[in-house]
Amino acid sequence: MINQQHIELIKGTIPVLRENGVALTSYFYKRMLGNHPELRNVFNLDHQSTGRQSRAQAATLLAYAENIENPDALVKAFERIAKKHVSLDIQPEQYSIVGENLLHSISEVLNVPMESELIQAWKEAYVQLADILIKTEKDKYDALTAQHGGWAGWREFEIENIQASEGASRLTLKASDQQAILPATSGQYISIKIQVPGQDVEQPQQFSFSTDQNGEAYSVEVKAEANPTIFSVANILLDHYKVGDKVLVSAPL
Ligand code: HEM
Prior knowledge:
InterPro entries: FAD-bd_FR_type, Globin, Globin-like_sf, Globin/Proto, Riboflavin_synthase-like_b-brl. The protein is α+β, with helices and mostly antiparallel strands. The protein has helices at about 5-20, 20-35, 45-50, 50-65, 75-85, 95-110, 115-145, 235-240; strands spanning about 155-165, 170-175, 190-195, 200-210, 220-225, 245-250.
């Protein structure tokens, strides 16, 4: 548990960190992806470049710190984040990488040494938050593998059919192992992960189901992005993928 003195220390720095949120998060991602280039396969580099994701993680840590005496206020957010993480096969050991880089970034923005009491306090807050997410995610991985046709992490699927229309295509995906797959309801989503052409990197993206899925194949609509980058999964699928090609898919959530 975090003691009262640490809670006060943390709370005192939230406004400064909020004000410098952009600096905090851009420093954080640059540092983390520089030290751990393998995470370029995990984070959506498209979102990185637009800065959307850069804000999400640090913003959640700040929101958590603000509610540190009452973390239940954030249960809904934890549920949403854990879902997204499980869809991306995020693992417990990756939390220490994110934590280390986030704490260094806080130390940098606040201009206080890593060894200070203040960073120690933030570390306690981060670990507490990470423990909540890791546990919520473990429950979800366990629930997925316990179901008939369920799985955790990535599973190979083959594109069985492509129904093309203007700027969009409907892809039908079948499990390469021909075994059962989880049924799903409209509104649930899967992540699809593919190799970026000409780059030594894989990229994931989420695709929602617009109708219930019967458990034999998944059908997703892939729409071209208006301002794609080389990392835009939808555009790569539309431009480079054909029937018989393989993609990686995470279980519906
Ligand atoms: C306490 C630590 C963490 C917090 C507070 C956190 C928070 C978040 C939030 C708020 C989102 C956006 C959710 C949404 O789209 O609705 C997110 C997405 C994501 N998180 Fe985390 N996260 C944490 C740890 C991690 C770790 C350890 C990893 C793996 C290295 C990770 C990887 C991702 C990825 C890849 C996404 C999707 C972003 C994208 O595709 O651009 N997160 N996280």
